Structure to design on (430 residues):
């Protein structure tokens, strides 16, 4: 045991004894750790530098400058080498610095190598594992290196942090004054005015079981059972997202409702030929040509996006929740229709079974499997490949579920991402 670790351990023992027990159980010896030198030096874990190798203090000051100087509370995600903690604590306006560990083994290793007692002993500091909390705290700074190195236990919070950091970039296609957005909304205005308000569907299925069907690869395992259920006289209501519509029809499964929100959806995804008995629920950014050709009933609503502000005032319709993916309004619709329990099919948010989507070729609906560089934990506790936007969509669905405790949510598969707030369905998830 190094001299640094003894002092650090004593500081943690005095304030957070249970936390020290957890840190002592971390396997820091398994880490691939190297000293990296430049004008200064830093620690590299699996090729990821924890800090600058040239001037750690200057880097920490630049990071601190991005945070509100007058905030009495700051949340720091990642422990680094202790540099940012020290800089933040120089601010007399700071009353509490909550440090959230993103990788327990990395922090345990740093405690062995460097003296961290100065910030550990500061009474304004609170320390804990990020994964102990269900949600991120604001305002925050997340150390970039530890967003990459986050361990399995803290992965859910890592995903929320990355989603929050990328929020402005993800919304770049939906600028309020974009000419493309304005043109699409203008072209759909007449249909929005004449089509039924989605609110007319709210409350029409009280207590009913509703299946919400997405396009994840695990959906393929359920085609046969869904076909059997669809043929029953007394059955759940079937709501599917737009990209699941064609694969379902191909399998002889006719959904009751299709939900579409994306301006990129075309007739390839929503062929109109067999749609006479199927309800389409849409947002105004959907291609008007798709809407015109649809043979069944059409219902329209809005999301909370500012792109719909003016149209909402001129043509009032109800609102559905959208968190980046069509899965969100589909689930929200099920809840607002009165569902007592919702079973999710194909809601994988990942690429299990080395596939991207059910019923589509690799890359037809977006990036190819080979482009997946990120991961989430599946229902077996294993890492499964995914992409960043899928992780963001998962975060938003989990937040929605947490906000509706009276509805029971079931996941039909363990092969995709584990969805917090859901229970694995005893029949479908076998």
């Amino acid at each position: 045991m190094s001299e640094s670790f003894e002092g650090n351990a004593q500081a943690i023992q005095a304030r957070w004894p249970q936390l020290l027990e957890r840190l002592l159980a971390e396997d820091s010896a398994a880490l691939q750790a190297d000293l990296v030198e430049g004008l200064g030096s830093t620690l590299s874990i699996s090729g990821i530098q924890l800090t600058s190798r040239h001037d750690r203090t200057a880097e920490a000051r630049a990071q601190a400058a991005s945070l509100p100087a007058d905030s009495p509370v700051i949340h720091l995600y990642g422990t680094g080498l202790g540099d940012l903690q020290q800089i933040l604590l120089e601010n007399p306006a700071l009353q509490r610095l909550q440090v959230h560990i993103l990788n327990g083994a990395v922090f345990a290793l740093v405690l062995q190598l460097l003296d961290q007692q100065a910030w550990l002993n500061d009474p304004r500091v609170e320390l804990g594992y990020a994964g102990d909390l269900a949600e991120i705290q604001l305002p925050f700074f997340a150390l970039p290196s530890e967003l990459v190195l986050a361990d399995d236990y803290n992965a859910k919070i890592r995903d929320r942090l990355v989603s929050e950091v990328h929020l402005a970039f993800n919304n770049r296609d939906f600028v309020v004054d974009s000419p493309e957005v304005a043109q699409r909304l203008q072209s759909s205005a007449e249909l929005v005015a004449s089509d039924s308000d989605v609110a007319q569907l709210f409350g029409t299925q009280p207590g009913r079981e509703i299946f919400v069907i997405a396009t994840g690869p695990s959906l393929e395992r359920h085609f046969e059972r869904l076909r059997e259920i669809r043929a029953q006289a007394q059955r759940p209501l079937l709501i599917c997202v737009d990209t699941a519509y064609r694969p379902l029809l191909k399998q002889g499964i006719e959904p009751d409702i299709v939900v579409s929100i994306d301006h990129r959806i075309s007739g390839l995804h929503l062929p109109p030929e067999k749609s006479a008995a199927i309800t389409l629920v849409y947002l105004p950014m959907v291609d008007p040509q798709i809407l015109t050709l649809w043979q069944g009933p059409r219902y329209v609503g809005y999301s909370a996006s500012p792109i719909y502000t003016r149209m909402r005032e001129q043509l009032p319709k109800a609102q559905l929740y959208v968190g980046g993916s069509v899965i969100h309004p589909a689930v929200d619709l099920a809840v607002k229709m009165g569902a007592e329990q919702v079973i999710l099919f194909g809601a994988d948010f990942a690429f299990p079974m080395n596939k991207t989507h059910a019923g589509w070729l690799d890359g037809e609906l977006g990036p190819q499997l080979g482009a997946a560089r990120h991961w989430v934990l599946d229902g077996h506790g294993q890492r499964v490949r995914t992409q960043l936007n899928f992780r963001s969509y998962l975060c938003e669905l989990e937040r929605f579920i947490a906000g509706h405790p009276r509805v029971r949510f079931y996941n039909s598969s363990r092969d995709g991402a584990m969805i917090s707030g859901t229970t694995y369905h005893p029949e479908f998830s076998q």
The CA atoms of residues 99 and 272 lie 54 Å apart.
